[in-house]
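Dig into what follows:

_____
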Amino acid sequence: MRHHCNPVHVVSWPEWLCTTMRQRLFIVMAALLLLCHTLSVQSAADTPQAPEAWTLSAAGGASQDTTLVGGIHRRPITGSVVEYSWQVRVGLGAHDIIGIHRVVQEIAPFVPKPTAKAVLMAHGDVWGFDAAFLASLASTNIPDSKALPVFLAQNNVDVWGIDFRWTLVPLETTDFGFMQAWDIGTDVHDLRLALLIARLTRLVTGSGFGKIHLLGWSRGGMTGYAYLSAETQSPVHHVRGFIPVDIFVKTDKADLRQAACDRFAVQQAQLNKGIFHDTTGLLISTVGTSAATAPDGPSSVIPGLTNLQAALFLGTSTFNLFQPVPFYHFTGGEVDAETGLRTNLLYTQEEFWIDFLQGAAPYEPVNIFAQGEALICDEMDLPYDDHLAEITVPTLYVGAGGGFGEFGEYTTTLLGSTDVTIHLVDLRPDEQRIEDVGHADLFLADDAKNLVWKPILDWIESH
């Protein structure tokens, strides 16, 4: 694996005695989280519901306990920009733990620079926060600074992130019964806590308690819609504005809706058989690792291709494996004249893509996939879309021409917001959309800063 890591600084007890009062406040805020969470988060029932019952709560899974797990890690990235990260226990189960990240400029070690602007980023399927948004830090082929959170932090935006609890389930896990109760509501619950942590920490470290923006990429955007729907019914609002990136929750296209119904039926069949975990992430990381270590060897995942060809095929021809919309792909590419395969990447460097694949988390709850398809299918009553029309926060939809693209616009028309902006990264004519900017190119492409990141920054600064 061609990964490297920057030095990570973990706060130890001797260092605690030497910290300044400002630094102590940053670390002590963890104790305050327990009190705030106890007062603000409604506990769910201890007994998990059977998946076929669909008696779901927008508050998410059980969470009677919230404590800090381990220390606060500090990782310098570039210049004065650093990443802080820590884990928080959100329930009584062994795997009821989420990750919290903060990417921000520092005045001194563990003294963040106060900022007026802030955003929390929610990742999608397969990749957690670091793997999705700070992929450059795990690649020897790309400068560490080439990442949206770093770009925003350099422009005085306080960037936060979450690792949903399923991303932290260890590879060696064999009993997945605990995932039976994990669903979209669980992620909504954890996202709410992450937003609270971000706002409270900003208050303690000098940036005030103002509401912050929420960016959700892919599945994270779907979770964002579900969260905001639930937030409309709460007296406490954390979100100032919403940035769904390349995703939709509802569609006015009958064929897309039917395809979602078909996929839901498959996933419901898995749940009925007692299969609660999906291993797509494990497959993806295997493809990436094989391409990095034995590029010319035969692929064990896609027979007939080499490991390198399989990795590039997965990026450029994703629609052959998974087709939420026609032509859907992670990375835009063109056909190789010798092999006839669409493997020549057009926007993202080949080595960076392979490094990105290796960051995949191995497991994800089938419930999350099933409920996502059920929302699009729109033939059963789930709570996550009940209040879309009451969402009034300013919204910026960002779509990829080779991803969900304009299909994500329809969901924004169902909102109550009067401030909706659409930014489509569409570089190819319709007949060439199979080669257009892909779902992951939005963050990985060589020109992502100009195509995507600057428009996001401009919108944040104007809101």
